[in-house]
Amino acid sequence: MDALALGPSWLDPERLISTFGLIGILIVVFAESGLLIGFFLPGDSLLFTTGLLVASGTYLHHSLWVVCPLIVVAAVLGDQVGYLFGRRVGPALFRREDARLFRAEHVVKAQDFFARHGPKSLVLARFVPIVRTFTPVVAGIGRMDYRTFVTFNVVGGVLWGAGVTLLGAALGQVAAVRDHIELILITIVLLSVVPVVIEVLRGRGAGRDGTPPRSRV
Protein backbone atom coordinates (compact mmCIF):
# COMPACT_ATOMS: atom_id res chain seq x y z
CA MET A 1 0.00 0.00 0.00
CA ASP A 2 1.14 3.53 -0.74
CA ALA A 3 1.13 6.11 2.03
CA LEU A 4 -2.02 8.19 2.18
CA ALA A 5 -1.17 11.78 1.26
CA LEU A 6 -3.77 13.42 3.52
CA GLY A 7 -2.32 15.60 6.25
CA PRO A 8 0.67 14.79 8.47
CA SER A 9 2.39 11.48 7.84
CA TRP A 10 1.77 10.38 11.43
CA LEU A 11 -1.97 10.43 10.67
CA ASP A 12 -1.53 8.02 7.78
CA PRO A 13 -3.74 5.02 8.67
CA GLU A 14 -1.21 2.43 7.53
CA ARG A 15 1.58 4.07 9.51
CA LEU A 16 -0.58 4.21 12.62
CA ILE A 17 -1.45 0.54 12.27
CA SER A 18 2.10 -0.61 11.49
CA THR A 19 3.44 1.34 14.48
CA PHE A 20 0.83 0.76 17.17
CA GLY A 21 -1.11 -2.26 15.92
CA LEU A 22 -4.55 -3.17 17.21
CA ILE A 23 -4.08 -1.23 20.46
CA GLY A 24 -3.44 1.94 18.48
CA ILE A 25 -6.58 1.39 16.40
CA LEU A 26 -8.72 1.00 19.49
CA ILE A 27 -7.26 4.12 21.12
CA VAL A 28 -7.93 6.21 18.01
CA VAL A 29 -11.50 4.92 17.69
CA PHE A 30 -12.15 5.61 21.37
CA ALA A 31 -10.67 9.12 21.21
CA GLU A 32 -12.45 10.12 18.01
CA SER A 33 -15.77 8.79 19.26
CA GLY A 34 -16.01 10.82 22.43
CA LEU A 35 -12.91 12.79 23.43
CA LEU A 36 -13.05 16.33 22.10
CA ILE A 37 -9.33 16.27 21.35
CA GLY A 38 -9.85 13.39 18.92
CA PHE A 39 -11.94 15.18 16.29
CA PHE A 40 -9.01 15.37 13.84
CA LEU A 41 -8.21 11.64 13.88
CA PRO A 42 -8.72 9.52 10.69
CA GLY A 43 -11.63 7.32 11.80
CA ASP A 44 -13.22 6.21 8.54
CA SER A 45 -10.02 5.68 6.60
CA LEU A 46 -8.43 3.96 9.61
CA LEU A 47 -11.25 1.42 9.89
CA PHE A 48 -11.30 0.77 6.14
CA THR A 49 -7.53 0.26 6.15
CA THR A 50 -7.82 -1.99 9.20
CA GLY A 51 -10.22 -4.29 7.38
CA LEU A 52 -8.02 -4.35 4.31
CA LEU A 53 -4.88 -5.19 6.31
CA VAL A 54 -6.63 -7.86 8.35
CA ALA A 55 -7.85 -9.51 5.15
CA SER A 56 -4.35 -9.43 3.67
CA GLY A 57 -2.59 -10.43 6.90
CA THR A 58 -0.38 -7.33 6.80
CA TYR A 59 0.67 -5.94 10.23
CA LEU A 60 -2.50 -7.31 11.80
CA HIS A 61 -2.70 -11.04 12.41
CA HIS A 62 -6.02 -11.15 14.18
CA SER A 63 -9.33 -12.52 12.95
CA LEU A 64 -12.08 -10.11 11.93
CA TRP A 65 -14.16 -11.87 14.60
CA VAL A 66 -11.72 -10.44 17.14
CA VAL A 67 -10.99 -7.05 15.58
CA CYS A 68 -14.57 -5.97 14.80
CA PRO A 69 -16.05 -6.57 18.27
CA LEU A 70 -13.13 -4.76 19.90
CA ILE A 71 -13.56 -1.78 17.58
CA VAL A 72 -17.28 -1.67 18.34
CA VAL A 73 -16.58 -1.74 22.08
CA ALA A 74 -14.04 1.10 21.75
CA ALA A 75 -16.50 3.18 19.70
CA VAL A 76 -19.37 2.62 22.13
CA LEU A 77 -17.23 3.36 25.19
CA GLY A 78 -15.91 6.52 23.54
CA ASP A 79 -19.43 7.84 23.02
CA GLN A 80 -20.38 6.88 26.58
CA VAL A 81 -17.49 8.96 27.92
CA GLY A 82 -18.48 11.85 25.63
CA TYR A 83 -22.08 11.70 26.86
CA LEU A 84 -21.11 11.63 30.53
CA PHE A 85 -18.64 14.46 29.99
CA GLY A 86 -21.31 16.57 28.33
CA ARG A 87 -23.87 15.81 31.02
CA ARG A 88 -21.61 16.51 34.00
CA VAL A 89 -19.14 19.11 32.74
CA GLY A 90 -20.80 20.60 29.65
CA PRO A 91 -23.25 22.99 31.37
CA ALA A 92 -20.41 24.60 33.34
CA LEU A 93 -18.46 25.15 30.13
CA PHE A 94 -21.44 26.84 28.51
CA ARG A 95 -21.75 29.26 31.42
CA ARG A 96 -18.25 30.58 30.80
CA GLU A 97 -18.44 34.00 29.20
CA ASP A 98 -15.20 33.51 27.28
CA ALA A 99 -16.22 30.11 25.86
CA ARG A 100 -15.92 30.11 22.10
CA LEU A 101 -16.65 26.50 21.29
CA PHE A 102 -19.20 25.80 24.04
CA ARG A 103 -22.10 28.23 23.89
CA ALA A 104 -25.52 28.04 25.51
CA GLU A 105 -27.17 28.47 22.11
CA HIS A 106 -25.61 25.19 21.02
CA VAL A 107 -27.52 23.38 23.76
CA VAL A 108 -30.79 24.76 22.41
CA LYS A 109 -29.83 23.72 18.89
CA ALA A 110 -28.87 20.25 20.09
CA GLN A 111 -32.19 19.79 21.88
CA ASP A 112 -34.06 20.94 18.78
CA PHE A 113 -31.92 18.68 16.58
CA PHE A 114 -32.70 15.60 18.65
CA ALA A 115 -36.37 16.57 18.92
CA ARG A 116 -36.70 16.80 15.14
CA HIS A 117 -34.47 13.91 14.07
CA GLY A 118 -34.85 11.63 17.05
CA PRO A 119 -32.32 9.05 18.25
CA LYS A 120 -31.37 8.20 14.66
CA SER A 121 -29.14 11.28 14.73
CA LEU A 122 -26.73 9.30 16.93
CA VAL A 123 -26.40 6.67 14.21
CA LEU A 124 -26.08 9.11 11.30
CA ALA A 125 -23.47 11.18 13.12
CA ARG A 126 -21.15 8.17 13.29
CA PHE A 127 -20.45 8.50 9.58
CA VAL A 128 -19.60 12.22 9.63
CA PRO A 129 -16.09 13.26 10.74
CA ILE A 130 -15.92 15.84 13.56
CA VAL A 131 -19.70 15.57 14.04
CA ARG A 132 -19.33 12.06 15.49
CA THR A 133 -16.89 13.42 18.07
CA PHE A 134 -19.12 16.21 19.33
CA THR A 135 -22.54 14.53 19.04
CA PRO A 136 -22.33 12.43 22.24
CA VAL A 137 -21.06 15.44 24.18
CA VAL A 138 -23.94 17.59 22.95
CA ALA A 139 -26.38 14.75 23.66
CA GLY A 140 -25.17 14.74 27.25
CA ILE A 141 -25.44 18.49 27.55
CA GLY A 142 -28.96 18.32 26.14
CA ARG A 143 -29.73 15.54 28.67
CA MET A 144 -30.97 13.06 26.11
CA ASP A 145 -32.63 10.05 27.76
CA TYR A 146 -29.77 7.78 28.82
CA ARG A 147 -31.37 4.47 27.86
CA THR A 148 -32.22 5.83 24.44
CA PHE A 149 -28.68 7.12 24.05
CA VAL A 150 -27.15 3.77 25.00
CA THR A 151 -29.38 1.87 22.57
CA PHE A 152 -28.61 4.01 19.55
CA ASN A 153 -24.99 4.42 20.61
CA VAL A 154 -24.59 0.65 20.34
CA VAL A 155 -26.45 0.53 17.01
CA GLY A 156 -24.27 3.30 15.59
CA GLY A 157 -21.11 1.73 16.98
CA VAL A 158 -21.88 -1.59 15.31
CA LEU A 159 -22.87 -0.12 11.94
CA TRP A 160 -19.87 2.20 11.80
CA GLY A 161 -17.17 0.28 13.65
CA ALA A 162 -17.86 -3.17 12.25
CA GLY A 163 -19.48 -2.00 9.01
CA VAL A 164 -16.61 0.14 7.69
CA THR A 165 -14.04 -2.44 8.82
CA LEU A 166 -15.85 -5.28 7.06
CA LEU A 167 -16.24 -3.12 3.97
CA GLY A 168 -12.48 -2.65 3.88
CA ALA A 169 -11.93 -6.39 4.30
CA ALA A 170 -14.38 -7.22 1.51
CA LEU A 171 -13.12 -4.64 -0.97
CA GLY A 172 -9.55 -5.47 -0.04
CA GLN A 173 -10.01 -8.76 -1.85
CA VAL A 174 -10.52 -6.84 -5.10
CA ALA A 175 -7.27 -6.24 -6.97
CA ALA A 176 -8.41 -2.87 -8.34
CA VAL A 177 -9.02 -1.63 -4.81
CA ARG A 178 -5.64 -2.82 -3.52
CA ASP A 179 -3.89 -1.15 -6.45
CA HIS A 180 -5.64 2.18 -5.88
CA ILE A 181 -6.01 2.22 -2.11
CA GLU A 182 -4.91 5.87 -1.78
CA LEU A 183 -7.64 7.01 -4.17
CA ILE A 184 -10.18 4.85 -2.33
CA LEU A 185 -9.30 6.37 1.04
CA ILE A 186 -9.41 9.90 -0.33
CA THR A 187 -12.86 9.14 -1.75
CA ILE A 188 -14.03 7.86 1.63
CA VAL A 189 -12.87 11.03 3.34
CA LEU A 190 -14.54 13.26 0.74
CA LEU A 191 -17.84 11.36 0.87
CA SER A 192 -17.88 11.49 4.65
CA VAL A 193 -17.81 15.31 4.69
CA VAL A 194 -20.57 15.71 2.09
CA PRO A 195 -23.33 15.90 4.77
CA VAL A 196 -21.47 18.72 6.51
CA VAL A 197 -21.09 20.69 3.26
CA ILE A 198 -24.78 20.23 2.40
CA GLU A 199 -25.85 21.44 5.84
CA VAL A 200 -23.63 24.51 5.61
CA LEU A 201 -24.97 25.40 2.15
CA ARG A 202 -28.55 24.95 3.35
CA GLY A 203 -27.90 27.27 6.26
CA ARG A 204 -26.42 29.95 4.02
CA GLY A 205 -29.26 29.63 1.54
CA ALA A 206 -31.85 29.96 4.29
CA GLY A 207 -30.10 33.06 5.59
CA ARG A 208 -30.15 34.74 2.17
CA ASP A 209 -33.84 34.20 1.50
CA GLY A 210 -34.86 35.53 4.91
CA THR A 211 -35.98 32.26 6.46
CA PRO A 212 -34.36 31.01 9.68
CA PRO A 213 -31.58 28.46 9.02
CA ARG A 214 -32.15 24.90 10.15
CA SER A 215 -30.87 24.13 13.63
CA ARG A 216 -27.58 22.27 13.67
CA VAL A 217 -25.60 20.52 16.34
Helix/strand layout:
Elements: H1 13-34, H2 43-56, H3 64-88, H4 90-94, H5 104-117, H6 120-125, H7 131-141, H8 146-171, H9 175-179, H10 181-208
Helix pairs in contact: 1-2, 1-3, 1-7, 2-8, 2-10, 3-7, 3-8
Structural class estimated from helices and strands: mainly alpha
- Spell the H/E element sequence: HHHHHHHHHH
Gyration radius, rounded:
18 Å
Number of strands: 0
Span from first to last CA?
Answer: 37 Å
Strand content: under 5%
Number of helices: 10
In round numbers, the mean pLDDT is: 76
Low-confidence stretches: 1-7, 213-217
Coarse morphology: globular
* Biggest sheet layout: none
In percent, how helical is the residue content? over 70%
Number of domains: 1
Walkthrough of the structure:
This protein has 217 residues and is mainly α. It has one domain. Helix content is 72%, strand content 0%. The chain has ten helices and no strands. Helix 1 packs parallel to helix 3, helix 1 packs parallel to helix 7 and helix 2 runs antiparallel to helix 10. The radius of gyration is 18 Å and the shape is globular.
Summarize the structure.
With 217 residues, this protein is an all-alpha fold. The chain has helices spanning 13-34, 43-56, 64-88, 90-94, 104-117, 120-125, 131-141, 146-171, 175-179, 181-208.
